[in-house]
Input
Amino acid sequence: MQALRGITWLLLLQSIGEVISRGLHLPLPGPVVGMLLLLVALRWPLVQESVGAVAAFLLQHLSLLFVPVGVGVMTHLDVLGTYGVRIAVVIVLSTWASLAVTALVLRALLKDDATEEGHG
Output
């Protein structure tokens, strides 16, 4: 029953996020707005417990979520044959770029944290 409440919370917050995103013409997709709402809602124990239960269930069966991706790859093998190298280059470059940005942000945050501790 707890997992059912958790999936209800997730679907409700995603739906609210979709309504907000479309209603306010935000540049963010509805599920992203829903995730931000979930971040705020996770402060309440009722939401934490029920979403935690459904998260544990989903993590136990995470491998099943890769089946649609595998089917999609098999369905579009011709596209991968044509653009596979380009896709691989874009994936590698975007991964490197996101790692670099993450490292720079972490470095800046750690530097700010160290300077605050030094003055305290």
